[in-house]
UniProtKB/TrEMBL annotation:
Pfam families, per the entry: AraC_binding_2, HTH_18
SUPFAM superfamilies attached to this UniProt entry: Homeodomain-like
Swiss-Prot/TrEMBL keywords: DNA-binding, Transcription, Transcription regulation
Entries under InterPro entries matching the protein: AraC-bd_2, AraC_XylS_family_regulators, Homeodomain-like_sf, HTH_AraC
Gene3D superfamilies: Homeodomain-like (1.10.10.60)
Domain HTH araC/xylS-type: 235-335
SMART domains reported for this sequence: HTH_ARAC
Protein name: HTH araC/xylS-type domain-containing protein
Length: 336
């Protein structure tokens, strides 16, 4: 196998067992090319389209290895030249980058972080980012779907996550160690030699542990005082909304299904999910609309999909959609 890390001249690292060349299955190689435009197209398919400026001198070919999970993906990539990358806003995922070799300067939102081997940065889903990589740089990238993060947040805390999560550097050694250990478990499960039955059984847990290693402290802080489990009326209301999101719904109808008064339901929703009942309904509908826009076998137009999920005003739907996912509905449709 053409070995990405060996070609990079990567020095020994404290966490070499995780980042060694043997971690990369031969079948994970997506491309190796001296054409940076070809690299841009291929990497854009895995992450997001981007613009770049690069030095003329090339040390090695651009290379990408990738392993896909259910709601995550693990990649290793190098450009083989000094390069600046300006990607589109991620929207539907967060990205955690660990520098394996060389140097990286990462800027996203209010974050500006430069570092060498071992530095790890979380790039938020809703912030514009810029990455500058040295000629000998090698990166490991872990993509995690924001929908999966939100689902875990709701289950653990009984409420919606507090808006989009901000970009940050993982500066504490223990936090980086926990993160790299969770990536190691994910890599083992995503290896092509892993038995399918074992992968199906353990991958959801591995992806959950990946999220917990990133956001565990924030999840603990977000739990209601005294801990506990969300009231039954909140669970019944959420289940009713999830089942009937495509139908005309009112707070009264949802409260009736939840077997409580509208006032009690609103108060419980704010306490346990951090938002109102109708806001939760809107977020569920936006997620369903996004899934339809991404579906290759759904011929409906953007207008038809918006109407299907209760959005009567197309302009407002587009504005809400862009705020939620960082892109226009038509952008999502164009990439399906």
């Amino acid at each position: 196998m053409n070995d990405l890390l060996s070609r990079s001249g990567m020095p020994p690292l404290p966490f070499a067992p995780l980042l060694s060349a043997s971690d990369i299955p031969p079948g994970a190689l997506l491309f190796e090319s001296d054409d940076l435009e070809h690299a841009r197209r291929e990497i854009g398919r895995i992450y997001r389209p981007y613009r770049f400026t690069a030095a003329r001198h090339r040390a090695k070919p651009a290379t990408l290895f990738n392993l896909e999970g259910d709601s995550s993906a693990l990649s290793w990539f190098a450009y083989g030249t000094e390069i600046t990358i300006r990607p589109e806003i991620f929207g539907s995922f967060v990205l955690v980058l660990t520098t394996l070799a060389g140097h990286a300067d990462i800027r996203s939102g209010g974050l500006a972080h430069a570092g060498g081997p071992g530095s790890t940065v979380l790039v938020a889903s809703n912030e514009r980012a810029q990455f500058h990589y040295s000629e000998d740089n090698v990166q490991m990238g872990v993509r995690i779907d924001t929908q999966r993060i939100a689902e875990l947040w709701r289950r653990v805390c009984g409420r919606e996550p507090p808006g989009a999560l901000s970009s940050c550097a993982l500066l504490e050694a223990r936090r980086r160690e926990r993160w790299l250990a969770s990536v190691q478990a994910l890599r083992q499960l995503l290896h092509p030699d892993t038995p399918p039955a074992l992968k199906a059984m353990q991958l959801p847990l591995a992806e959950e542990m990946l999220i917990m290693s990133l956001f565990g402290e924030q999840l603990a802080e977000a739990m209601p005082a005294g801990g506990g489990i969300a009231p039954a009326c909140v669970k019944r209301a959420a289940a009713f909304i999830d089942e009937c999101a495509g139908q005309p719904l009112t707070v009264s109808a949802i409260a009736t299904a939840a077997r409580c008064s509208a006032r009690t339901l609103q108060r419980a929703f704010h306490q346990w999910r951090g938002i109102g009942v109708m806001r939760y309904l809107k977020e569920v509908r936006l997620q369903r609309a996004r899934a339809a826009l991404q579906a290759p076998d759904d011929p409906a137009s953007v207008t038809e999909i918006a109407a299907r999920w209760g959005f009567g005003h197309l302009g407002q739907f587009a504005a809400d959609y862009r705020q939620a996912f960082g892109e226009r509905p038509s952008d999502t449709r164009a990439r399906r």
